[in-house]
Amino acid sequence: MKLQGKRIALLLSTLIISTAQAETIRIAIGTQDTTINCATGGLLIRELQLLEKYLPHDGKYKDAQYDIHWSNFTSGAPLTNEMVAGKLDIGSMADFPGAFNGEAFQKAGKQSLFINVLSGSTSGSGNGVVVPKDSAVQSLAELKGKTISVPFASTAHGMLLRAIAQHGWNPEEDVTLITQAPEIAGSALQANKIEAHADFVPFAELFPYRGFARKIYDGAQANAPTLHGTLVDADYAKQYPEVVTAFLRAAIEADRLLAAEPEKYSELIAKATGIEAEVIYLFHGPLGLQTRDFSWKPEYRQAVKTSFDTLKFLKRTTSDLDVDKFIDDQYIRAAFKQAGLDYDARLKNYAPSPLSAKDARTGAVITDFKRVAQLWVVGEPLVRHYGSAESALTDLIALEKAGKKIRVAYVQDSNLGIKLLATNAWFVRNKNSVSGFLLKDQAAAFAKTNGGEVLDFAAVKKTFAN
Length: 466
Description:
Elements: H1 2-21, E1 24-31, H2 43-47, H3 50-54, E2 65-72, H4 76-84, E3 90-94, H5 95-107, E4 112-121, E5 128-132, E6 147-150, H6 155-166, E7 176-179, H7 182-190, E8 196-199, H8 203-209, E9 213-218, E10 226-233, H9 234-239, H10 241-260, H11 262-273, H12 277-284, E11 291-292, H13 298-313, H14 323-326, H15 330-338, H16 343-348, E12 373-377, E13 384-386, H17 389-401, E14 406-412, E15 419-421, E16 426-429, E17 434-437, H18 440-450, E18 453-456, H19 457-465
Parallel strand pairs: 1-2, 1-3, 6-7, 6-8
Antiparallel strand pairs: 3-10, 4-10, 4-11, 5-8, 5-9, 12-13, 12-14, 14-15, 16-17, 16-18
Helix pairs in contact: 4-5, 5-13, 10-11, 10-15, 11-12, 17-19
């Protein structure tokens, strides 16, 4: 009887294991396609079918079937609602809505985990404030007493509140803040119905690129770190840790591909989102406006803590969130290990997306990355790199004389160190060099100290045509 009992127990055990192996595992993923710095954690994985490449098919997953669902959102708040409702397992969003996600799960008696960074800026670049193109406003300081629209509960909202605080303003008295989604704000800016708009990636660059707005403030001026990253339902991660790790392996692969061929994949992202490849390359190309970085640097951890503190300030929550437990790096560390990468080395690396190139005009190896300028010529698959703005402008004139057209020109900001759309930048030209700036007053201060004349793009370009 004992032997027979053991056989029955073994049979039941085998049946349980077989059932587990044969189960269909749902992987429901929420993306923000138009928030283009989330691309490696969503859009590219989906379009290139990278998740399927890394999903486990051994051990307890030997006979598992996968049911992958993708849902696209324009912001983090509705994505969080779907996650809390149990309709999504994984999602990508920024630090501010990410903190809200953690609080919303906690309020529902559940838990979510912030498992990795996708892209960000330890200085805060990526969020920004724009005004209508013909506005006389040149700086945020001139917006006191004005109305500023912003998507509420977004990372741009958090940036704006910190910027207001740095100016010593009362956000309830010195400015009027109204909520407005980016797609609505774009139309309002074109019709001059709003005085200013604050937004997240990529809209503070997209609207100026499309010609109806000017950027007057970059999040780097607030020196408030910002990021977008991946969150997961903690119960799901506990049940299927290998699936979560596989998702991150796919994200790492997407990052590798984008780093290797930024122009090619900027075009792919553009095709899927309708956002121009020139704007996408501004972020994802070498020396981009933000850096793709999967590691939980102290600045990014602090960004999440600051975001939660801002939620409290806004009276959007009265609870406490243990951010140290909310941020869980075990899955990204496992993914790095499987990929043969050194997570701790990446954690210490603060360099922007690297550039290894020669000046397209002179052939000299580029070594001073603070002065880099770039041209994307119509009909050419690759962006041309230059060691300086003056080299790029010299080549630009020659190219146009040869009948070629320029898709976009980029220049590095001499003060903030960020990449700018050259057509919307200010320049100082003196005897020795050309320097680019986001802000007119910073260009004027530089000219006063170093000599030279403050010019817009059309004017500085004209000086090279003579």
